[in-house]
Specification:
alpha/beta; nine-stranded mixed β-sheet; six-stranded antiparallel β-sheet; 10 helices
């Protein structure tokens, strides 16, 4: 670590430079945790509140984001691609400004590498590859840190170079080298009076750019409805979402969509979800390993009250077993 890095980031400098550290969690000046190989550990590195605040300001310098009383919750991307999330007063206690950094790590270069890592089986990779090439819309779900963005990056590497892709994210995390890809991220309300740009704004704007495929990172609000409408307009899509299971991810799309307005009908949303989402991929952590737990198709639904899935692969007894192929 250079002296300049030490001066700028203090006790976090070594952790930022350590390639084995996946995530850094600073609880004010009281406790610091790191995550290595998916395992969280408490380390003896602390600092006073003033030092933590100075480090937070340095982390945000140059990102276009700010932390103050009017914006006490901030997410930003660091120069190396790592994502930082900071919460401060009045959301937190006055002396407990919290910093969480999910470090940029070298992700898989494709589905074959996920197979090599035993995240996925060769047969599962083939199904996903065929789904992308057939312009299927895929919902990638799982807990935070389960590997959703890594899988999305691998899926995008299967997209035809003739395809126009537009991505919408809160903070840039998607990393794919496609010749015709436009990437957009949200913006907080500016001190200069500039209006906030929400994920919902970006999804609406994406449709005006004539995309063949829309990619939405971390659906968690009313943008779900706009995404469904975009997919219903004829383009395909990939989206990530936090969920506890494959079936739960569809239910959450409905819950988020009704936040878009009082006139949004739940039966209409459920029918739309079933008609535009072709495949759900659910990931989870299995000890220190990230694995695809289920790949399921979304068939025509028999009722508007309950989603059903047609499971094609399911993880059991330590492996991803094939149950069915595309019909």
């Amino acid at each position: 670590m250079t002296a300049a890095t030490t001066a700028r980031f203090g006790f976090l400098g070594d952790l930022l430079d350590d390639p084995t550290v996946e995530e850094i969690i600073v609880i004010g000046g009281h406790r610091t945790f790191v995550v290595r190989d998916g395992v969280k550990e408490l380390i003896p590195a602390v600092a006073d509140a003033a030092t933590v605040r100075r480090i937070a300001d340095q982390l945000l310098a140059g990102t276009g984001r700010r932390l103050d009383l009017s914006s006490p919750i901030v997410s930003a991307q660091l120069a190396d691609g790592s994502r930082v999330h900071i919460t401060g007063p009045p959301v937190t206690h006055p002396d407990r400004l919290n910093i969480q950094i999910r470090k940029f790590v070298v992700t898989a270069t494709g589905l074959d590498e996920l197979v090599a890592r035993e995240t996925l089986t060769p047969e599962g990779a083939t199904l996903l590859r065929e789904a992308i090439r057939a312009d299927r819309s895929i919902l990638v779900a799982g807990a935070p840190g389960a590997g959703k963005t890594t899988l999305v990056n691998c899926l995008l590497r299967e997209v035809s170079p003739d395809c126009r892709v537009v991505t919408c994210e809160e903070v840039f995390e998607i990393d794919a080298d496609l010749p015709d890809m436009t990437q957009m991220q949200t913006r907080d309300e500016g001190m200069d009076g500039g209006a906030a740009i929400t994920l919902r704004d970006l999804v609406r704007e994406a449709l005006r750019q004539r995309p063949d495929r829309i990619v939405v990172g971390e659906v968690r609000g009313p943008e779900a409805f706009d995404m469904l409408m975009a997919l219903n307009a004829g383009c395909s899509g990939i989206a990530t979402l936090h969920a506890n299971s494959a079936i739960d991810s569809l239910e959450k799309l409905v819950s988020y969509s009704v936040l878009a307005g009082q006139n949004v009908s739940i039966p209409f949303v459920r029918r739309t979800v079933a008609s535009v989402i072709d495949l759900v991929v659910f990931l989870k952590r299995n000890g220190r390993q990230r694995v695809v737990d289920e790949i399921a198709a979304v068939p025509a639904q028999l009722t508007d009250d309950l989603f059903t899935l047609d499971t094609r692969f399911k993880h059991s007894d330590g492996q991803l077993d094939q149950t069915r192929w595309w019909s």
